[in-house]
Amino acid sequence: MSPKYITIHETDNTSVGAGARNHAQYLYNQAVGNTDRAASWHFTVDDKEIYQHLPLNENGWHAGDGDGPGNRESIAIEIAVNSDGNYSKAVDNAKKLVAYLMKETGVPLNNIVKHQKWSGKICPANMINNGQWDAFVNGVGGYYNNLYQPKDDITGGWYEEAIRELNRRGIMIGEGNGVFAPNRAITRAEFAQLISKSLNLPAGDASFKDLNDANSTLRDGIKRAASAGIILGRGDGYFDPNTPITREESAIIVNKALQYKGIWGPVVNLPFSDKDQISYKEDVQRLYGLGIVKGKGDNQYDPKGTTTRGETATFILNMLQVIENGSVEKVIGTAQINGIGVNVRSGSGTNYSIVRKTSKGEKVTVYEEKNGWLRIGTGQWIYYDSSYIDYNRL
Q1: Cα dist from 83 to 24, 90, 123, 126, 179, whole Å
Q2: Integer angstrom CA distances of residue 241 from 29, 119, 159, 233, 361
């Protein structure tokens, strides 16, 4: 067999102990025993182990399509659903296995298919019934890009952690040949698609007059986000999909995404010198209060500036952390340092090393108070003295 597809099944056996090993034993007993059962597949995956039952160049009998391509041209993977196992971990192991098989066989991501494709059977049932199939395929793509793609252009960048995590989740993928283009401006259509994938939004529709101007791969994300009320048009029925999205526009969408999930950030004061240039200030205030957005340096937010792919990854990962964990790093206040050369230390005490000195008039964000010290960043603490520091708690 020269495989063209990878077919995903679930064992549908919730019995205690019905993991990969016992399914391997079942196939062995079937092969050596006097039985007329002919079912066979290539791999069984559970939360701890992966068993291979057939070589990749030998077809199995698993798809329910007789001599069709499901049986004759596809590698079959069964995911165990035993009640004493961790199903989520088994699915994650299956994603990694599929990514490896893609590398070994050249089967493309769009040929990763459900058993349902071949016979109509509702399988893999858990994924189908819970709307998780797209997330599975996206996760496979993320692992493939992380593990097997050539060296990329994000290593060492401030955006690396966020991009790699979104790539692992199958939300943000590269542009090919190891290129993620973290500094490229992202379009309104691309941003809508990433939000849609991040929240796994249900199918929907949109009536924008220029919807077909968007790349065909992005239209579904626009429809889903519009139906959820997360994105709106420019007016007059237009969305303007191919225009780079600004930093304030991206804040509006992320804030609406959080509200879609029932999360309303606090409306806090902004420390940015250009805050009066923000047209939709409340959205930025709420995101700033949750620690999702920060400034760009020089004490500015740059609301009219375009949002890059690197910034987008950071915004979206921070948003997901708020949704999943309740917070990113909550802002508790702002401070202006009026002294000259105030020591910034690596910890909350004079015994910690000095990492830098502040400039007079510098404005900082405060994330934590501890024994009279203020944390103004990761590994950055200043001692609060009201004679030269103006501190405003939010």
Answers
A1: 18, 12, 18, 13, 41
A2: 58, 38, 24, 9, 41
**Shortest CA distance to 195 belongs to which of 222, 162, 233, 165?**
222
Question: Beta-strand (E) ranges in 98-201?
Answer: 112-114
Q: Which amino acid, one-letter code, is at 357?
A: K
Q: Beta 368-370 vs 373-377: how paired, if at all? A: antiparallel
Q: What is the pTM of this model?
A: 0.52
**Residue 152: CA count within 13 A, CB half-sphere:** 24
What top-level class would CATH report for the domain 333-393?
mainly beta
Q: What pLDDT is stored for residue 361 in this prediction?
A: 85
* Superfamily for domain range 5-133: Peptidoglycan recognition protein-like (3.40.80.10)
List beta partners, residue 44.
Answer: 51, 78
Question: Encoding tokens for residue 18?
Answer: 């019905």
Task: Please state whether the peptide bond connecting residue 124 to the residue before it is cis, i.e. omega within 30 degrees of 0.
Answer: yes
Segments making up each domain of the chain, as ranges: 5-133, 149-325, 333-393
Contact, 70 vs 64, CB < 8 A?
yes
Contacts 24+ apart (CB under 8 A), 319-327: 319/198, 319/254, 319/257, 319/258, 319/292, 320/198, 322/258, 322/263, 322/290, 322/291, 322/292, 323/258, 323/261, 323/263, 327/290, 327/291
Q: Are the C-beta atoms of residues 304 and 251 closer than 8 Å to each other?
A: no
Return the residue matching tokens 């199918």: 203
Regions of the chain where pLDDT drops below 50: none
For residue 89, count other CB atoms closer than 10 A to its CB: 13
pLDDT tens digits, residue range 3-18? 999 999 999 999 999 9
Which letter does DSSP use for residue 52 in this model?
E
Rounded Cα–Cα distance for residues 231 and 250 (Å): 10
Q: Which residues contact 20 (CB under 8 A, 6 or more apart)?
A: 44, 45, 46, 48, 49, 50, 51, 80
What is the residue-wise DSSP string for 352-387? SPEEEEPPTTEEEEE-EEETTEEEEETTEEEE--TT
Q: Which residue has the tokens 């409340």?
A: 282
Backbone dihedral angles phi then psi of residue 324, each to the nearest 5 degrees: -85, -35
